[in-house]
């Protein structure tokens, strides 16, 4: 099937409305869940883009299945060829951070001068990369717990908020942030538009700096790491470093990252941090965008960040080991 | 065969001499190499003790083979039953540090009030444990590169010095240290008797705090970790923490630990740190006796040791993961 590409007839007025077009760039677990929800809105034209061809083909042939806390299958356009995608009004970037630059290069032509692209990715620095090629950029941070089940199939463990706000250097109008949030919330997601989303982004970032790095290096699932005294103490020390860097930047956190630690630790299932999933698959991790970014900011500002720097060094070393160096 | 148990006839004087009896406790790679050399001296009665029965049986049946930089097979007494071992004049402790306490409990009866026991183990704290049950204790640190090839077979990559000196709290006479060194050097090893061996022990300890912890967490062999910029920087930061703790304790290092780093990195073969070998086999590591000991001293003395504490926390977490915690 193919979504409407020219317009739909308004049920209320009978007028021809141009469908809002949205392209989700990066259809891993998070991108797929957002895509699936959005595709249930009949007045939105949804395009999914990912280099993982088997996943795109499964979506084209059988639809995108969402299970877990939700249960439905959505039909939508899915491709690994960016030239097939028409100009879009909104973009949602949901790739791993390490793929942001390549994804922007492949898709920048889709986003014209009035389009806005929102990053819902982990870590810091994605918005800066997107803004090199896209006019209006929106920063975001997510609180969903999701995972892939296989090609064409993603699962939601629980819905959480997705906080979005203008990426300051791009001068994105807040009305665009509100429009995107309204559209996503109609689709059943929980987007929260904020004038300043940095506090939410840093709250998630600081949580990730502990949960992802410690999980990836110890191979403990999050609940076990949060409960085991030595790793719990390291979580706390990493959180304190990140909080000190945020303070030096004048960023007010939206919540205590310890709440995210505790919330995750209460999960009934063993939940591996995404960097641990990457380590077990011997794929490059997002450590540059998480602990590396905090360490870079801290060192620039003169805030001590020995632990974020050390776990960054260890994870770069672990990634290096997969190349079997001489 | 069985070594002489009562005495040997002096080739020079014809007098009956009581053979010096030595028990090596812990016959991994290092213990086996020391045992093999010592067993070549006809006037020394050598007993090897290890709980690894297959290794002890192989030594009893086929002798102990030493290859690599040496090449010989030695015959000697080897047992996993400490009740078979007669009272000995000297003991050499070469178990993993985590097994020191159990090994002392099993063998303390072998060492009478005039016997001296020398630790050639990694890390700090072994001498303290041995001294709880043995009158005279000698501290030691080794510079050999060795590894096991299989039951009954150990290999020497290169010979290095083994520095020994009195364990201060036990008031061990220096003459006992000299006697042990002379005996070992006759056997072809390079023991160096020192009035104060703490500087040598801490030099090795500080080297191990970097090479072992970084290797175990990144799975890089030592040369690769020493050459890769992020892990080389972490080596340097760990070395500096250990050096600061040694200074606060008034210990003068016997060498720059960076020389040990560089020496190991020049090895033509990929050499995994012993803690990495343990991690790959999912066996408990010696981290409590290396980074844990440095962190404990530093925290007691008010010397900042965040990195030794962090790698200790990560390795305890990694060990914890092997129990598949809920």
How would you describe this structure to a colleague?
The structure is a homodimer of 326-residue chains. With 326 residues, chain A is of the alpha/beta class. Chain A folds into 2 domains: 8-195, NAD(P)-binding Rossmann-like Domain (Rossmann fold); 199-321, N-(1-d-carboxylethyl)-l-norvaline Dehydrogenase, domain 2 (Orthogonal Bundle). Chain A is 42% helix and 21% strand. Chain A is built from 12 helices and 14 strands. Chain A has helices at residues 29-38, 53-62, 100-107, 126-131, 174-186, 198-218, 222-227, 229-248, 257-265, 274-280, 291-301, 306-321; strands spanning 8-9, 16-17, 20-25, 44-49, 64-68, 72-74, 77-79, 88-93, 111-119, 136-142, 145-150, 153-158, 162-166, 191-193. In chain A, strands 7-4-3-8-9-10-13-14 form an 8-stranded mixed sheet. A 4-stranded mixed sheet of chain A has the order 6-5-12-11. Chain A has a two-stranded antiparallel sheet with strand order 1-2. In chain A, α4 (126-131) links the parallel β9 and β10. In chain A, α6 packs across α12 and α8 packs across α11. The longest helix of chain A is centred in the middle third of the chain and has 21 residues, at 198-218. Chain A starts with 7 loop residues before the first strand and ends in a 5-residue tail after the last helix. Mean pLDDT of chain A is 94; it is low at 1-8.
Itemize the secondary structure elements and their pairings.
Two copies of one chain form a homodimer.
Chain A: E1 8-9, E2 16-17, E3 20-25, H1 29-38, E4 44-49, H2 53-62, E5 64-68, E6 72-74, E7 77-79, E8 88-93, H3 100-107, E9 111-119, H4 126-131, E10 136-142, E11 145-150, E12 153-158, E13 162-166, H5 174-186, E14 191-193, H6 198-218, H7 222-227, H8 229-248, H9 257-265, H10 274-280, H11 291-301, H12 306-321
Parallel strand pairs in A: 3-4, 3-8, 4-7, 5-12, 8-9, 9-10, 13-14
Antiparallel strand pairs in A: 1-2, 5-6, 10-13, 11-12
Helix pairs in contact in A: 6-8, 6-9, 6-10, 6-12, 8-11, 11-12
